[in-house]
Predict the 3D structure of the following.
Amino acid sequence: MTFSVTILGSSSALPTSQRFPAAHALNVHERLFLVDCGEGTQIQLRKYKQKLSRLEQIFISHLHGDHVLGLVGLISTLNLLGRKAPLTIWAHAPLQPILDQNLKFFVNELKFSIVFRALDTKNRKVIFEDKTLTIESIPLKHRIPSTGFIFREKPKQPNIRKELIDKYSIPLADIIRIKEGANFVTPQGQIIPNSELTHVSSPPRSYAYCSDTKYFDGLAEMVQGVDLLYHEATFSKDMTKMARSTGHSTAEQAAKIAELAKVKRLIIGHFSSRYKDVDVLVNEARKIFTETYAAEEGLEFKIKSHREDI
């Protein structure tokens, strides 16, 4: 089943002719989640063929314009497309009255409801959970309150070996119990261990989004072991002082977090417009963490399941 991230915007505050402001589209089992919503996000979603009808929730990391100014435009687009289903928006509490005022002024007869959920900006917290997914918010360190997000699949039940179902004529009721960890006892009293009847399903996949933030060691513990980490890398290491004073990170610092957290892959983005070619940032990060990739508009990062040969 699908678990992938499509980059919609990779720039920092000043957009360029090649880069849009921050936005990622996350597809989990054909359910669409949007993380940040810079200017033009609705254009990028359509350009890269994201299915807007499947958009369930939007997550805003913080209230700087390059992460939120596309929100009203996107809602207007969804309204014009005839959306009826509620849309959940997770963001910092001060956004709600601003958003309500803008929607009343700019969006004519909104045909679906907005469910606004205020984020806790100081504590690590699971903010959403259902049968297949948990979403956690984590506090970052920026000039204003900033929040990261971790999306994790729920562990799947083990799969039963089909050939053994036929061999032992296992009834449906026993199949359910075996999936929950039970052994099987044949009518003759033979005990078939659960370990022989099942094989472990694919390990759950995970993606963490961390933008905007300055470097701090505690972040590595919070994103420990994720499959895919997005970490901002606004500057190169020769601008470390600038990064810290503006509440941002360098490519080298992003790589240090990835290394400390033992993640599988790192995406860097939120590039300053001063970098016409971001290879200098990617190469800087790869000296520490080789599995580093640049966020580029339209690029899709797939996290394959174990059975798809990760």
